[in-house]
Amino acid sequence: MKLDMEAVEEAAKHLYIQALKILPPDIKEGFKRLDATETDPTAKSILATMIQNIEVAEDTTNLLCQDTGIPIYNLEIGSGIDFDGYKLKEAIRKGCERATTEHPLRSSVVHPITRVNEQTSCGIRVPVINIDFTDKDEVFEMEMIPKGSGSENGSYLKMCIPAEGVAGIKSFVVDKVIECGGRVCPPTIVGVGVGGTSDLCTKLAKKAGARALGSTCPDPEGAKLEKELSAAVNMLGIGPQGLGGDSTAFAVHVETAATHITMNPVAVNIMCHSARRARASFTPKGVEIGF
Amino acid sequence: MTEHTIHMPCTEEQIRELKIGDTVILEDWLYGIRDATQIHMFDKGRETKFDLAGHAVIHTAPNVKKVPPSNFCPAGYESVCIGTTTSMRMERFTRPLMEKNGVRMVIGKGGLGEDSRAAFKDLGGVYLAIIGGTAALETTWIERITDVDLEDLNPECLWEFRIKHFGPLLVAMDAHGGSLYDGVKKTAADRRAEALAAMGVTAEGASS
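YS: structure for the whole thing
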């Protein structure tokens, strides 16, 4: 299958806008679950307002949150896909820029030193484009994540040593959730990366935080850890917006990678309650838009 | 837990009546302010044309649409989506905003720190918590953008909004040194050991 770059550009534009306006069904379900179990009255009223906001955004076709985030595109390229890599990246960049100027959206992206905003949501190495390859036949998938800064500022890495063991990983996650408090817009999805190199560990934390609710870590050890951590962080009483309650996180998600004999890295990357994402699947049948 | 409606601008007396846990609905005027706005005002010496005395500022940088100036949109900006950002990054600007510009209310999410708590107490101010990430709803409380200053910082300009029934907002830090965030912070610290123990982590750090 030959990738149609005009369709990629259109999808890159559409996905950015869709992600900002409509939450995926698993996140909406997550809100219902928290609302049903929350016992604190303030927390319950905050959750109700968040649920109301999801409805208002859809009814008024407006953005869920004013933070248009840093645009991230995660690509999964199956076998038998014919494409020019450079043109692919350019098409995504163009689509991202057009979403910003044509909707219009707030460009939240600035030069890191001069702080100049080009008003395009683009800049040096932004949009972030991650490319992975899969064995799926003739499928090209593009996931778009507008990552809000409130939660992205809740990003941490610790190069634990082997002597700190799994206990070091667990304490680090709990301590960072406490440190973040209400700043990261709880209830959150706490993404945790375990293992790898420092950069891979951080990347895994981001991947974990962006995973759909209800999904589990493919590594059974990681799956066990995320279950324990999910229960633990919800014992802390931080609650929605850090104003107290049971609902601190929808879940903790863990992703793992093998690491060095002398290393035990752990990274945390938080996803706020506006856990936005959108997805386009390109197959020989056409383009399907979803979550 | 009293419900208040306050027409802006307000007085120090009105502020001192507010207690943590009360709710407030604001009417008439609101100013949008952000990191870069305050960096330029307080670190780079830029002045604003607005008189912020007795007013409320909200930590925001809105999504706007440029339109030809009209009676409804005199500044040439139409509101698309207006929400609230994390306040803590702007902690060091609370006191100068109050001392220099006379601001009485700061609206944001996630809370502010010790310097702000002291400034609110000394000068008569409050922090009103809004629910972060609910911008679609918040946008319906804003009638229009009436003016803009420090426009080159777009979207981090100083925005003037005309508002209607803006809230309810929760008084999370008051002018008497009270903060709703204290209790939550203490609870989390108290429960930390319990949460770790549930995962087999002891004070010594051993994991079963």
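YS: worth flagging: The mean pLDDT of chain B is 96.
IM: good catch. Also The CA atoms of residues 75 and 147 of chain B lie 5 Å apart.
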